[in-house]
Amino acid sequence: MSHLSYRLRQRVLWTQVWGLATVQGAITLSWVIYSLYLVEVLTQLGFSPALATGLLVLENGLAIVMEPLMGSLSDRVQQWLGNRFLLIALGMILAASLFLSIPLVMLGNGEAVRWLVPTAMVAWALSMTVFRSPALSLLGRYALATKLPQAASVLTLVGGITGAMGFLVSDWLLALGPLSAFGIGSAVLLGAAVVLGLCHPARAVVVAPTSRWRDLSLEGLSLVFGAGLGVSLGGRLMIQTFPRALAAQDPTVNASIILGLLFIVLALTAIPAGSLAIRIGNRSAMILGLVGMALLCLTIGGLTSMVLAGIVAIALGALFSLVSNGTLPFALSLVPYDRGGLGTGLYFSGGALALSLFGTLSRLGDSLSPVQGGQLAASAFGFAALCVGGSMWVRK
């Protein structure tokens, strides 16, 4: 058997999957750094903290259109050139440059320079949409459809560990200062582009595709978008509500530890969750995770101790791994094999709408109680579960 024949018979190309995981980690780290410094940078320049919420709503509003647009463009590039890596590499280089430009612009003086900082922030957020959907859609070319959740578990593992940094080492990242922190983020983005380039094969078809779709389905695309909306909105509301529920019981409690625990558990259970999804089916695993998270979110408002909060955080992290592993395989399963970029982009487009809605909801401030926040999160997860379940009856 030739080397090429062996590669085509592999169910998962693990080297390529780990290369893609570095991109996932770089994306997550960049957003962690950006979120930590957003308000500090703007207020340091004399802007109102409310501008941060406005920028996030604007960035995500633009991403609603840009994510599927760039994903679809990458599908066309794939057809024209036989490989979408050029678009991904250009997008990552652009994003790394713009990320570093944010603290560099702060070194200047004058009103015009001051307004360049929020402009650079929006430009950077847009540049991230250039490569995210095209890059993560590559998962469908690195694993057979039946093994996608197992391959995606590696991305969840790396993303969970990186996401935990936002809660566990936030003080250290803030102590670095904007120039060093953003410099690290920029370097990691460039490094991830190099790693993916070294791992990615010259030709894009690395495993035999097993897509059951020949044409795009409006119903299928709508369900992908809806699942992205529900999962992202539920996740954000859950993360926002948890600290407020704990603070209501004990104002001295450090909620970051609990949230960090959630993401660590998410990472640690990613691989076992991927194996479970292979056994029971990806949609069944996602529904199990979404329904379980919805039920647990209803309990957040009634937490009375750190012990109970820790138990809920562990359970949420484990269930969230079932959902996180399944999102990309779910999006890829409802589009033809050669339209993976569009499917992935639509999922992230739904997530961007969720973040815009979350930015609007966050303006409600303290008027939204922990109980209400938990109920909204549960409703969002329930909506996502309906979208995933409904996909079982969509015609091919």
UniProtKB/TrEMBL annotation:
<keyword id="KW-1133">Transmembrane helix</keyword>
<feature type="transmembrane region" description="Helical">
    <location>
        <begin position="220"/>
        <end position="239"/>
    </location>
</feature>
<protein>
    <submittedName>
        <fullName>Major facilitator transporter</fullName>
    </submittedName>
</protein>
<feature type="transmembrane region" description="Helical">
    <location>
        <begin position="179"/>
        <end position="199"/>
    </location>
</feature>
<feature type="transmembrane region" description="Helical">
    <location>
        <begin position="285"/>
        <end position="303"/>
    </location>
</feature>
<dbReference type="Pfam" id="PF07690">
    <property type="entry name" value="MFS_1"/>
</dbReference>
<keyword id="KW-0472">Membrane</keyword>
<feature type="transmembrane region" description="Helical">
    <location>
        <begin position="251"/>
        <end position="273"/>
    </location>
</feature>
<dbReference type="GO" id="GO:0022857">
    <property type="term" value="F:transmembrane transporter activity"/>
</dbReference>
<feature type="transmembrane region" description="Helical">
    <location>
        <begin position="376"/>
        <end position="394"/>
    </location>
</feature>
<dbReference type="InterPro" id="IPR036259">
    <property type="entry name" value="MFS_trans_sf"/>
</dbReference>
<feature type="transmembrane region" description="Helical">
    <location>
        <begin position="152"/>
        <end position="173"/>
    </location>
</feature>
<feature type="transmembrane region" description="Helical">
    <location>
        <begin position="85"/>
        <end position="106"/>
    </location>
</feature>
<keyword id="KW-0812">Transmembrane</keyword>
<feature type="transmembrane region" description="Helical">
    <location>
        <begin position="309"/>
        <end position="332"/>
    </location>
</feature>
<dbReference type="InterPro" id="IPR011701">
    <property type="entry name" value="MFS"/>
</dbReference>
<feature type="transmembrane region" description="Helical">
    <location>
        <begin position="12"/>
        <end position="34"/>
    </location>
</feature>
<feature type="transmembrane region" description="Helical">
    <location>
        <begin position="46"/>
        <end position="65"/>
    </location>
</feature>
<feature type="transmembrane region" description="Helical">
    <location>
        <begin position="344"/>
        <end position="364"/>
    </location>
</feature>
